Amino acid sequence: MIHLYNTYDIEQEEPTVVVIGNFDGVHRGHQKLFEVAKQNSEGRRIVALSFTPHPSWVISNDPKQMIMRTYDKRNKMNQCGVDVYIQYPFTLEFSKTDPEVFFEEILVKQLKAKVVVVGQDYHFGKEQQGNIEFMQSFANKFNVKLCAVKKVFIDGEAISSTKIRNLICEGNLQEAKELLGEDYVVSGAVVEGKKLGRQIGFPTANILAREGVLYPPNGVYATKARVNKQDYLGITNIGCNPTVGGIIKTIETNIFDFNEDIYNEHIVLTFYKFIRPEKTFKGVPELIEQITQDKQKVAQLNSIYCYV
Asked: 22, 59, 149, 157: which has the fewest C-beta neighbours closer than 10 Å?
């Protein structure tokens, strides 16, 4: 898959099928868009046109925290059969683009779209003036097939990135999984920490929490760690380590039966179950006792649910 990031140089040489959206989480609703694109591709390349930063960071007073980092979204796009993933620069000036100019200059001339796939409630262009009716009129004018896809519902409620963000914030990872279509994941490069975990017998692989990315509530979780294409059972703490005076939010994972140097390696954490909230202990001995109990609980859960 080709990934074009933060560039205006997006011109395609052959006719394409263009799917438009922000695709945060690449949830089951987004996956439906890509299914429709494949059904209408007739051998053409499938282009996913997204925007960076998320438009809410440019034109809203309430910027949205992202469900996925670019790395994870790119992998998921690839799994969905996307051939070209574009993160087009979104600026205040671009937000004022006339809807017909957007359709003609970007979709038709640059991307050579013969099919455009969007959600049924999609809006685009200056002040989001362009709706499906506008887009259909432009599609007719430029001889482009428009596929407006209905929302996907589960238990009578439409799947949306907003709904998934709320579930993650609540720590409701099981319901988030149902909407995402797979377990919630966090990934990143392993950074060097204070090595406090190693000193007390529980070495951890640490990932820094990134600004603008959404994370579950602080606490301890049963996880799976993918390291160098191998899967290991893990126990992950999200938080600041208040017992030892920590102030920076990190994602720290004790990987079971693992003792390798993986600094700067990229790892992927799959979150399965919330174990307990973050808490401050009276001292290190009490912390060690609690971690031991947490690991035992995760091992018991794994024996039942076979995480790894």
From this structure: 157
Encode pLDDT of 243-287 as tens digits: 555 557 889 999 999 989 999 999 999 999 999 998 888 888 898
In this structure, the chain runs to a length of 308
* Share of the chain residues as helix, strand and coil, in percent rounded to the nearest 5: 35, 30, 40
- The topology (CATH level 3) of 2-158 is Rossmann fold (3.40.50)
Question: Any idea what DSSP says for residue 82?
Answer: -
Rounded-to-integer distance, Cα 98 and Cα 117, Å: 19
Q: How far apart are CA 265 and CA 191, in angstroms?
A: 9
Q: Where in the chain is the domain with CATH 3.40.50.620?
A: 2-158
Q: Which of 71, 84, 65 is nearest to 17 (CA)?
A: 84
How distant is the alpha carbon of residue 290 from its chain centre?
Answer: 31
Q: Does domain 185-305 have CATH number 2.40.30.30?
A: yes
- Quote the DSSP letter at residue 191: B
Q: What is the pLDDT of residues 23-56, one digit of tens each?
A: 999 999 999 999 999 999 999 999 999 999 999 9
